[in-house]
Design brief:
190 residues, mainly alpha, Endonuclease III, domain 1
Length: 190
């Protein structure tokens, strides 16, 4: 595997490589998986993604297996419990926003049938196929990400700026930002 050419952002860390090779950019149509990515992206803001990946299983345990219905019912006691959990990012505003976002997530499910139906509508329900030649060509945000971020914020979501939203769109396969020389570019495209 190490002989394969990967995107420029991937380090030699095996966890990072596994994430890139198996998950990043693969279209997600499952609401729970989409909620997991969304929750993790909001905690990542200001940190390295590898930090989040290393804590991912701790997050899974702390946030009820990324079940939005359970997270939406978290109380102040749960916030305190999470603030004491050394295995996750212990930042009160992000923890409270995860609970808030779970509640908003459920509202969108009711309105649209699934959260995926809502979010995928911002790319006409098909992944955008980019042809990035290098990491330098990948923007931090796009017009679509700004539009989606604005709509999510209008609906009450927090910690969901356009840069976070674009990272989410990349991770969940709404856009294919694998570099064209990366072995995953064509695989994800298909």
């Amino acid at each position: 595997m190490s002989q394969k050419h990967r995107c420029g952002w991937v380090t030699s860390d095996p966890l990072y490589q596994k994430y890139h090779d198996e998950e990043w950019g693969v279209p997600v149509r499952d609401d729970r998986k989409m909620f997991e990515f969304l929750l993790l992206e909001t905690f990542q803001a200001g940190l390295r993604w590898l930090t989040i990946l290393k804590k991912r299983e701790n997050f899974r345990e702390a946030f009820a297996g990324f079940d939005p219905e359970k997270v939406a019912r978290f109380s102040e006691q749960d916030v305190v419990r999470l603030l004491e959990n050394e295995g996750i990012i212990r930042y009160r505003l992000k923890i409270e926003s995860a609970i808030n976002n779970a509640q908003r997530f459920l509202e969108l499910q009711k309105e649209f049938g699934t959260f995926c139906d809502y979010i995928w509508s911002f790319v006409d329900h098909e992944p955008i196929q980019n042809e990035r030649k290098s990491l330098a060509e990948v923007p931090a945000k796009t017009e679509r990400a700004e539009k989606l971020s604005k709509d999510l914020k209008k609906r009450g979501f927090k910690f969901i700026g356009p840069t976070t939203v674009y990272a989410h769109m990349q991770a969940s396969g709404m856009v294919n930002d694998h570099e064209v020389s990366c072995f995953r570019h064509e695989e994800v495209k298909e």
